[in-house]
Amino acid sequence: MSKKRSLFDQSLDRSVFVTYFLGGVVPLMALAFLSDRAMDALDERNAQWSVVGLVIGIGLLSLASFFALRRIVKNAIARMNADNQRLEALLRVARELADAPHAQVVLDATVVWAMRIGHADACYVYTRSHSDKSLEIVARRGEKADAWLESCEGQWLDMVEHTLLQGDVNRVDASGRDGLSIVIAPISGEETTEGALLVVGEGHVFAPAEVDALDTLATQAGVALQSAERGDAQRNFFSHMTELVIAALDTHVQYRSGHASRVAAIANQVGRAMGLGEDELHDLHFASLMHDVGMLRIPVADQKNPKHYRKHPIVGYKMLSRIRVWEKAAPIVLQHHERIDGGGYPEGLAGDDICLSARILAVCDSWDAMRCDDEYRSALSIEGALGELESHTGTQFDANVVSTFRALVSQGAIPTS
User: Fold this and answer.
1) Which of 28, 105, 381, 396 is packed most tightly, with the most Cβ within 10 A?
2) CATH second-level architecture of 253-411?
3) Cα 245 to Cα 304: distance, rounded to the nearest angstrom
4) Chain segment 358-411, per-residue pLDDT in tens
5) What pTM was estimated for this model as a whole?
6) Contacts for 257 with CB less than 8 Å, ≥ 6 apart
């Protein structure tokens, strides 16, 4: 059974009650006492002056009580607003860290939010890759962060190690020597302690609410860090897999060695210039790298035969759509040989029915093909290749993509050698 709470359990309750008692109850008791006991013993003139004095005293006491209550309420509202702001910040942090694609993004976001939440002057994140490794600073922020680190690095490292052994947040208030207050909060994940968040305030003593918020932030960072590191490991694995597939493709389609990597680099520039988001750029990148992956299923002897060659977008689509990390790139691969006028393959799509990423890939693919030697012709010049793109604008290629492409070539953003 829960314990019944007293009126005086909270400091705010006590403050309000005392102020109310002094400003409201005490004057009434004084008035009652004067009316009942003192007035009869005074002559009429003294009684009048007593009443006047009592009224003035009651007024002053009530006015003082009003201002005291006003100050109490303002302070309570200020504390409540500060708590709400910290809560809102922590909710925003949780969303931002959950969406962080890489471990370094988590670390950078953590120091930024620690500065805001703790009203700090500097912030550091210590981590170590393994339990037998030394702690290293992997993120920092603050104008004096480097200077303070140079003078306090050894001391802080010992404090961080001690905090990690304790497994609980550690607060050190400002000392006379350097005037720095410090909060150290372990960054813990599901498995092991990853490191610690060290927050510094110059001439600023961290309030308990700030310490709690920083501790919560460190916990959120630990969970997000582990999630991001797992994501990084998965991305690295699939990046290596992609490299292996491209290497196999370069070997299989010998006359186009390095083609996929060059097309991907160019497509990234065009996609950014045309306003694609990060997710769309990610899909365009992998589609560009893998756009000819279907050629792996076509024998070398048949690679120049249109009857067989034109199957590679469908074959590539089927190969990629079965693999989760590449499934969003698969439709781009399927459509990269479609034409704006509907005369392309494999489905004869036209205009905006062809996704923008596929229209970008079509231009970049053709550009690299024209700029490289093959067994039938020599590479075209820059102006010659641009002329070919523009002469087929509106029929084979999207006009906006070609226009953007030419502008990037003029700016030197597209490699031309």
Assistant:
1) 396
2) Orthogonal Bundle (1.10)
3) 21
4) 999 999 999 998 998 776 778 899 999 999 999 999 999 999 999 999 999 998
5) 0.50
6) 250
